[in-house]
Amino acid sequence: MVILQKRVPGTSEASLDRFVTRAKRALGLRGAVTVLVTTSRELQTLNGRFRGKHKPTDVLSFPAEVVGARRFAGDVAISAELAARNARQLGHSTAEEVKILVLHGLLHLAGYDHESDEGEMGRREERLRKKLGLPVALIERSGRIEESLNRKGQGETPQSARRKTAGIARASRTSGSPRRSR
Fold it and tell me: Tens digits of per-residue pLDDT, 72-89?
């Protein structure tokens, strides 16, 4: 299920839901996924509530607890505003950036953790990005935005802070421990 609380030019709930289905199939991820596209303020609230980090971030994900048959894989939340900013800086559309963030979140739901897997998640993300026809992947390009902003004298950004960021959960969901997201 896709919930667009914040509209993204070039995408709809139906088109993003189709992408989620394709990406899950390519990844081999089973179970339902909820994707919430919302404001940076909402992601800051979620990040604070579930991770104790009171900063906005672009993507958060929470894998579901495994109880019996796995019918629910987890939740992914995305900041439409940070997605738009990243897209502008990287020269692609906000709709493409949202898909990149969805793919990154799905990889975390599948159990990948780029902070501890010696590049395995990054390699998998790159292969899936190419297969799904997406521009540069989140892990691949993480330094590009930071370097660009630091050259402009803006110092630490939500992107540089998000390397330490992990998952989302909506308060009404039964979710497991967060996975690290950037």
Answer: 899 999 999 999 999 998
Q: Give the span between the Cα atoms of 39 and 85, in whole angstroms.
A: 12
At 104, is the secondary structure helix, strand, or coil?
helix
**pLDDT (average), residues 96-109:** 94
Q: Does domain 2-164 have CATH number 3.40.50.2000?
A: no
The CA distance from 105 to 180, in Å, is 9
H helix count then E strand count, the chain: 7, 4
Domain range summary for the chain, segments of one domain joined by +? 2-164
Residue 131: the pLDDT is: 92
Strand order in the sheet with 2-4: 2-4, 32-38, 72-79, 59-63
61 and 22 Cβ atoms separated by less than 8 Å: no
Q: Where are the alpha helices (DSSP H) in the chain?
A: 13-27, 40-51, 80-90, 94-109, 120-131, 138-151, 158-161
